[in-house]
């Protein structure tokens, strides 16, 4: 319904997303490194650097999955701060919790199973909210952006790190070949699951482009919305402030 991006019926999409992440949870981190050639680490580092998160802050990492951002935030906010890792999928949450426990970093972290569309937190609660490679999996993205805005403090920042659109035709061609041919093959060989990785490629192609997402963030009530293209627009980092 939104901007013509609704590719499958609503419940079908939610079920498919659940199946995909239950299926990939155990191999999620290794696949991330392999499929992106490790570059996702740079995209995430940049997000952390630009977050402005500091000691004592309250941070929400929604669709936090295996907790890469949460781990770094938990070190930044220190014992006076708090990081909530929220995800709709209990398999991903479990892998995330185990990983963060292994890193000895759980004192200031809370794990919450939640849907981004209706966040179970009070109004005006968080200083910073991140959603990394999560928004494209959410069925009602406008509802998710509204919900994030509601739980953000005035002056707080939403950061959306997500696959986006390349503006270079040669890069787009190469990238399409990679996502629709090589990526599902890697999924088949390494995770024994080509279908999930085909879904991921499709969901990337269906996701709103930079300007559309910026518009959606403004419609949700955020101001000062802007984005930065990373790796030629394969990924974009959008930010917006709650007035
Ligand atoms: N943020 C992590 C990262 O960057 O590595 C994980 C990203 S992973 C590609 C996408 C995550 O979004 C999955 O863990 C999935 O369960 C979660 N997700 C999908 N739909 C969601 C929703 N409606 N609400 C909250 N989380 C959702």
From TrEMBL:
<dbReference type="InterPro" id="IPR004033">
    <property type="entry name" value="UbiE/COQ5_MeTrFase"/>
</dbReference>
<keyword id="KW-0808">Transferase</keyword>
<dbReference type="InterPro" id="IPR029063">
    <property type="entry name" value="SAM-dependent_MTases_sf"/>
</dbReference>
<feature type="binding site">
    <location>
        <position position="87"/>
    </location>
    <ligand>
        <name>S-adenosyl-L-methionine</name>
    </ligand>
</feature>
<comment type="pathway">
    <text>Cofactor biosynthesis; ubiquinone biosynthesis.</text>
</comment>
<keyword id="KW-0489">Methyltransferase</keyword>
<feature type="binding site">
    <location>
        <begin position="115"/>
        <end position="116"/>
    </location>
    <ligand>
        <name>S-adenosyl-L-methionine</name>
    </ligand>
</feature>
<dbReference type="InterPro" id="IPR023576">
    <property type="entry name" value="UbiE/COQ5_MeTrFase_CS"/>
</dbReference>
<keyword id="KW-0830">Ubiquinone</keyword>
<comment type="pathway">
    <text>Quinol/quinone metabolism; menaquinone biosynthesis; menaquinol from 1,4-dihydroxy-2-naphthoate: step 2/2.</text>
</comment>
<protein>
    <recommendedName>
        <fullName>Ubiquinone/menaquinone biosynthesis C-methyltransferase UbiE</fullName>
        <ecNumber>2.1.1.163</ecNumber>
        <ecNumber>2.1.1.201</ecNumber>
    </recommendedName>
</protein>
<dbReference type="Pfam" id="PF01209">
    <property type="entry name" value="Ubie_methyltran"/>
</dbReference>
<keyword id="KW-0831">Ubiquinone biosynthesis</keyword>
<keyword id="KW-0474">Menaquinone biosynthesis</keyword>
<dbReference type="GO" id="GO:0032259">
    <property type="term" value="P:methylation"/>
</dbReference>
<dbReference type="GO" id="GO:0008425">
    <property type="term" value="F:2-methoxy-6-polyprenyl-1,4-benzoquinol methyltransferase activity"/>
</dbReference>
<comment type="function">
    <text>Methyltransferase required for the conversion of demethylmenaquinol (DMKH2) to menaquinol (MKH2) and the conversion of 2-polyprenyl-6-methoxy-1,4-benzoquinol (DDMQH2) to 2-polyprenyl-3-methyl-6-methoxy-1,4-benzoquinol (DMQH2).</text>
</comment>
<comment type="similarity">
    <text>Belongs to the class I-like SAM-binding methyltransferase superfamily. MenG/UbiE family.</text>
</comment>
<dbReference type="GO" id="GO:0043770">
    <property type="term" value="F:demethylmenaquinone methyltransferase activity"/>
</dbReference>
<feature type="binding site">
    <location>
        <position position="66"/>
    </location>
    <ligand>
        <name>S-adenosyl-L-methionine</name>
    </ligand>
</feature>
<dbReference type="GO" id="GO:0009234">
    <property type="term" value="P:menaquinone biosynthetic process"/>
</dbReference>
<keyword id="KW-0949">S-adenosyl-L-methionine</keyword>
<dbReference type="GO" id="GO:0009060">
    <property type="term" value="P:aerobic respiration"/>
</dbReference>
């Amino acid at each position: 319904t939104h901007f013509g991006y609704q590719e499958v019926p609503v419940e079908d999409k939610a079920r498919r997303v659940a199946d995909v992440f239950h299926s990939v949870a155990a191999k999620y981190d290794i696949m991330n490194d392999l499929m992106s050639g490790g570059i996702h680490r740079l995209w995430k580092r940049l997000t952390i650097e630009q977050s402005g998160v500091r000691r004592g802050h309250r941070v929400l990492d929604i669709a936090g999955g295996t907790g890469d951002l949460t781990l770094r935030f938990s070190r930044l906010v220190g014992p006076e701060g708090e990081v909530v890792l929220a995800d709709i999928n209990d398999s991903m949450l479990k892998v995330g919790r185990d990983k963060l426990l292994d890193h000895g970093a759980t004192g200031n972290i809370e794990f919450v199973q939640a849907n981004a569309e209706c966040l179970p937190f009070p109004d005006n609660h968080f200083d910073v909210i991140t959603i990394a490679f999560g928004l494209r999996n959410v069925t009602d993205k406008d509802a998710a952006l509204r919900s994030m805005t509601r739980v953000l403090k005035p002056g707080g920042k939403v950061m959306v790190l997500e696959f986006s659109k390349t503006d270079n035709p040669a890069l787009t061609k190469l990238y399409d070949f990679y996502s629709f041919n090589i990526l599902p093959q890697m999924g088949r060989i390494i995770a024994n699951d080509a279908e999930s990785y085909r879904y991921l490629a499709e969901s990337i192609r269906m996701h709103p482009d930079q300007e559309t997402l910026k518009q959606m963030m403004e419609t949700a009530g955020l101001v000062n919305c802007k984005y930065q293209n990373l790796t030629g627009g394969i990924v974009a980092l959008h930010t917006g402030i709650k007035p």
